[in-house]
């Protein structure tokens, strides 16, 4: 019985991890679409300020996703 519960929990972890990654990518794409600046181009130029903003946005999205998924 413990083996079956372990496998169920393992599948749940991978499923929620995949869901979180998909939602993070979707959230980044939506923010990139809404904000008029081109984040990718600015990051390629080495713009540190844009990097900090993107990192903050991703952390914020991750916190929201974590609460929704139920961590």
Automatic annotation (TrEMBL):
<keyword id="KW-1003">Cell membrane</keyword>
<dbReference type="Pfam" id="PF03994">
    <property type="entry name" value="DUF350"/>
</dbReference>
<keyword id="KW-0472">Membrane</keyword>
<feature type="transmembrane region" description="Helical">
    <location>
        <begin position="7"/>
        <end position="28"/>
    </location>
</feature>
<dbReference type="GO" id="GO:0005886">
    <property type="term" value="C:plasma membrane"/>
</dbReference>
<keyword id="KW-1133">Transmembrane helix</keyword>
<feature type="transmembrane region" description="Helical">
    <location>
        <begin position="48"/>
        <end position="69"/>
    </location>
</feature>
<comment type="similarity">
    <text>Belongs to the UPF0719 family.</text>
</comment>
<keyword id="KW-0812">Transmembrane</keyword>
<dbReference type="InterPro" id="IPR007140">
    <property type="entry name" value="DUF350"/>
</dbReference>
<protein>
    <submittedName>
        <fullName>Putative membrane protein</fullName>
    </submittedName>
</protein>
């Amino acid at each position: 019985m413990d083996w079956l519960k372990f496998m169920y929990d393992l599948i749940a972890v991978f499923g929620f991890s995949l869901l979180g990654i998909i939602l993070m990518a979707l959230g980044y794409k939506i923010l990139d679409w809404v904000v008029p600046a081109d984040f990718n181009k600015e990051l390629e130029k080495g713009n540190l300020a844009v990097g900090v903003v993107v990192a903050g946005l991703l952390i914020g999205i991750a916190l929201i996703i974590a609460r929704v998924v139920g961590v």
